[in-house]
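Is this the right way to post C-alpha cells for a design question? Let me know if I should format differently. Anyway, here goes:
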C-alpha cells in the first residue's frame, strides 16, 4: 500500500516554497501511521489528521484542522482544509505512481477551499481549489471558524412547522421548516444570493409592483401580499427572551436565498423610505434540504401560471375597454397582460367598472365589495360576460361604454378632493392624521391615479373604492346603454363631505383600519343610500 522509504515521510504538501524541498528524499508520499518518522528539516507544510501539533509553523501559511481552527497561524498562509470535507466531485491524484509531484492550485470550484482527503486503500488525493484571491473575498464574507455565515436579528414572530414525515426517534435529521415575520428595516443586508437561480431584474413590471406595494404608505399587508423570502440554512434557532432569530449559512452552494430575490433586493434598495414598524416580510427557512437542494430550487422558482388577463388579452377580449379609453391620456399607461409596459393594471379598471354594473348589482341589496377585496373575481366576471355576449349590445360592459371614462374621472376627482371634503365636516381636524392617510416622503410627489393631478395626501383605496361605488345609485339604462340620472360630479360636490366623514368614522369604529372599511358591506350601503337620497331630493 505504501511506497518505498515511507519511514521518512508521511505527507508533504508544499505551497509557497517548493524549492526548499530536497527532491532526493521527497516526492509526494502519503503515510498514515508513522508521522513520527517525518524529518522536519525538509518539510514546509505537513498535514496530519491526528497530530496537528507536529506542524512546523515556521513555514506554514495557514493550516485549518477539523477540530482545532484556533491553531491556525494566519500570518503566512493560503488555506488548507484536511480530510473531513466531503464534496460532490473530486480530482484524483495517484500518489503511488508519481515520484515527484506538486499540487497546483487550479480554478476548479467556486468555494475557495483546498480539500485534502485520504482514501483508505487506493491512496488517492482528492482536492478542490479556487483562486487565492477569490477565497480571500469569501473568508471576509463569512464569520465563524468553519467558514459559515451567522446572522442574528430580531423578528416579530417565529414558529417551527413540524415535519409530518419525521418520526420522533429520528430527531432533527430530516428536513425542517421555520416561518418568521421580520420588519423590513431589520432584515440583514448580507443574506447569501448565490443559491438563487434567477437573475434579479428590478425594471420589470413585477418588480415595480413589489416596490409600489412595499412603499404604499397606507398599506399594512406587504407580508401577506408578497410571497416573501425562501432561505436554505444549516441551522435556525430562536431566543424567546430577546425575540432574536439566528440563522447559520454554512455551505454557499446550498445555503442562502433560494426564492424571493426580487423582493429581497427591492427591500434593500427602498427600505430607507420606510419607518420601523411600517412594513414586514415573511421568511420561510428550510434546514436539512442539502440533498434535495437542486429539486427545491427548481420547484420554487417555477414561473407562475399565466394570468387570466393575459389569456384574455391574447383572445382580444379587452377591445371594448381599449376603444372606450383610447382618447384618454392614461390609456397608454394601462397594461393588459403580464410583463407589459405601463403602471395601471387593467384589473383596477375592471374592479371600478364592476361597481357600476347595474345588471349584477341592480339596487341597494347587493354591493360590489369584491371590487376591493377580490379583484381577480372582477376579471372573471368580465371574461364571463364577454364569452357569453361578446361585443354585442347585451354585454353590460358594452352598455357601460358611454359612462366609462366618467367613472375614471370621478375616481380622480374623489382622490384629489378627499382632504378638502374632510375639512368641510371637520374644520379643525387634519385629514393627514387619519390612520391610513399619508404624506409623500423623501421628496416624492403624489399624483392622481389616472390623470396625474397633484395630491397633497395619499388616501387608501379602502376609503376611495366604497365612495366611488356609491355613485352606482346615479346609473340608469336607457335605449340599451348606461347613462347618468344626474351629473355625478355635481352630486359629489354636495355630498362629498358627508361621504368622507362617514367613511373615516366607520374606519375608526373598526379599529382605524382602512382595509376593514373597504370590505365592510354596511359602509358601502350607507354611502350608496347617501348618494341616492341626494339625487331623490333634486
Amino acid at each position: 500500500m505504501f511506497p518505498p522509504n515511507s519511514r521518512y515521510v508521511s505527507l508533504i504538501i508544499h505551497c509557497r516554497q517548493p524549492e526548499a524541498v530536497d527532491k532526493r528524499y521527497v516526492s509526494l508520499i502519503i503515510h498514515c501511521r508513522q508521522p513520527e518518522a517525518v524529518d522536519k528539516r525538509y518539510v514546509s507544510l505537513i498535514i496530519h489528521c491526528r497530530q496537528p501539533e507536529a506542524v512546523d509553523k515556521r513555514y506554514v501559511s495557514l493550516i485549518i484542522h477539523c477540530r482545532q481552527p484556533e491553531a491556525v497561524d494566519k500570518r503566512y498562509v493560503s488555506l488548507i482544509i484536511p480530510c473531513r470535507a466531503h464534496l460532490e466531485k473530486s480530482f484524483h491524484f495517484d500518489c503511488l505512481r508519481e515520484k515527484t509531484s506538486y499540487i497546483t492550485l487550479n480554478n476548479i470550484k467556486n468555494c475557495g477551499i483546498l480539500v485534502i482527503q485520504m482514501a483508505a486503500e487506493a491512496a488517492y488525493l482528492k482536492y478542490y481549489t479556487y483562486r487565492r484571491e477569490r477565497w480571500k473575498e469569501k473568508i471576509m464574507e463569512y464569520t465563524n471558524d468553519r467558514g459559515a455565515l451567522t446572522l442574528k436579528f430580531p423578528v416579530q414572530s417565529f414558529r417551527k412547522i413540524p415535519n409530518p414525515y419525521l418520526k420522533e426517534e429520528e430527531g432533527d435529521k430530516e428536513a425542517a421548516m421555520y416561518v418568521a415575520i421580520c420588519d423590513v428595516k431589520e432584515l440583514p443586508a448580507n443574506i447569501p444570493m448565490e443559491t438563487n437561480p434567477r437573475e434579479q431584474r428590478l425594471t420589470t413590471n413585477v418588480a415595480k409592483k413589489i416596490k409600489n406595494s412595499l412603499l404604499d404608505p397606507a398599506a399594512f399587508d406587504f407580508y401577506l401580499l408578497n410571497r416573501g423570502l425562501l432561505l436554505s440554512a444549516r441551522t435556525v434557532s430562536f431566543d424567546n427572551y430577546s425575540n432574536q432569530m439566528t440563522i447559520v449559512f454554512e455551505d454557499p452552494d446550498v445555503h442562502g436565498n433560494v426564492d424571493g430575490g426580487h423582493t429581497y433586493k427591492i427591500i434593500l434598495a427602498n427600505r430607507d423610505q420606510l419607518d420601523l414598524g411600517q412594513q414586514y416580510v415573511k421568511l420561510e427557512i428550510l434546514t436539512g434540504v442539502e440533498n434535495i437542494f437542486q429539486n427545491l430550487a427548481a420547484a420554487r422558482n417555477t414561473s407562475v401560471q399565466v394570468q387570466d388577463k393575459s389569456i384574455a388579452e391574447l383572445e382580444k377580449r379587452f377591445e371594448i375597454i381599449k376603444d372606450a379609453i383610447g382618447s384618454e391620456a392614461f390609456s397608454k399607461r394601462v397594461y393588459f397582460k403580464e410583463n407589459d409596459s405601463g403602471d395601471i393594471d387593467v384589473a383596477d379598471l375592471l374592479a371600478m367598472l364592476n361597481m357600476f354594473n347595474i345588471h349584477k348589482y341592480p339596487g341597494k341589496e347587493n354591493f360590489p365589495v369584491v371590487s376591493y377585496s377580490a379583484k381577480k373575481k372582477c376579471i372573471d366576471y368580465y371574461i364571463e360576460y364577454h364569452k357569453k355576449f361578446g361585443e354585442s349590445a347585451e354585454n353590460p360592459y358594452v352598455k357601460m361604454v358611454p359612462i366609462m371614462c366618467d367613472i375614471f374621472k370621478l375616481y380622480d376627482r374623489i382622490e384629489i378632493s378627499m382632504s378638502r371634503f374632510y375639512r368641510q365636516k371637520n374644520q379643525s381636524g387634519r385629514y393627514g392624521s387619519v390612520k391610513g392617510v399619508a404624506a409623500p416622503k423623501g421628496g416624492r410627489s403624489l399624483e392622481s391615479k389616472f390623470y396625474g393631478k397633484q395630491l397633497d395626501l395619499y388616501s387608501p383605496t379602502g376609503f376611495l373604492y366604497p365612495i366611488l361605488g356609491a355613485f352606482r345609485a346615479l346609473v340608469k339604462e336607457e335605449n340599451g346603454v348606461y347613462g347618468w340620472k344626474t351629473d355625478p360630479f355635481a352630486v359629489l360636490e354636495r355630498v362629498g363631505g358627508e361621504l368622507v366623514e362617514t367613511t373615516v368614522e366607520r374606519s375608526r369604529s373598526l379599529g382605524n383600519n382602512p382595509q376593514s372599511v373597504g370590505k365592510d358591506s354596511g359602509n358601502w350601503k350607507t354611502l350608496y343610500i347617501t348618494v341616492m337620497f341626494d339625487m331623490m331630493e333634486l
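Format looks fine. Someone answered above. Worth noting: Residues 149-300 form one domain. Residues 1-16, 24-38, 41-146, 168-172 have pLDDT under 50 and may be disordered.
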